[in-house]
Amino acid sequence: MYTVMLLASEPRTGYSLMQSIEERSGGTWRPGPGTIYPLLKALTDEGLIAARSAGKREGSVVYEITSRGRGVAAEMQKMMAFACRREGAMNHIFTDLLSPEVAAPLLVNRARDVFSAFHDVIDRVEPAEAARLLKEMRVTLEVEAGRIDARETAGKAGRGSKPRRARQPTA
Fold it and tell me: Which of 15, 54, 57, 170 has its C-alpha lying 20 to 30 A from 116's C-alpha?
């Protein structure tokens, strides 16, 4: 479905889709032609996207989303928004399953990833809403910076700085 979402923003060639996915995944995944073209054919067969000649060279094809595909993309966005809202709550459960020494660095990296994603998307938000969100982000960061400063000032950066919840014995 990520391919449909990419095509919702603009028509692309199969090669362009492969490059976009590689770039967005930080090089972690680059689907090859044996993956992307069968997927594009299946999405075309389902009526979610349409293929048209790119006109650049013979055989070059550009894929674009159809109205049916836009409907599916809209539903997918609703599901993803729901999942993202629930993810915050799940973070507490995931970190309870890890030792603090493992969880803390993972959460620092997670925060970096969230900030990076925020900066990637904020320029595509309407200016008035972007200004509101940037202000909200600044307030959030100032509050968190204050909490960090208080921990450092009190010398409570490590263990014992906050009462730990009792962990349930594992089976």
Answer: 15
Ordered domains of the chain (ranges, CATH): 2-70 (1.10.10.10), 98-153 (no CATH)
Mapped onto helix, strand or coil, the DSSP state of residue 100 is helix
In b/e form, how buried is each residue of 40-75, taking b as 16+ CB within 10 angstroms? beebbeeebbbeeeeeeeeeeebbebbeebeebbee
Q: How confident is the model at residue 83 (pLDDT cuts 50, 70, 90)?
A: confident
Q: Is the pTM of this model over 0.70?
A: no
At residue 111's C-alpha, the angle toward residues 107 and 112, to 5°, is: 120
Q: In what order do the strands lie in the sheet with 12-13?
A: 12-13, 61-65, 49-53
Helix locations, 46-99, DSSP H: 67-96
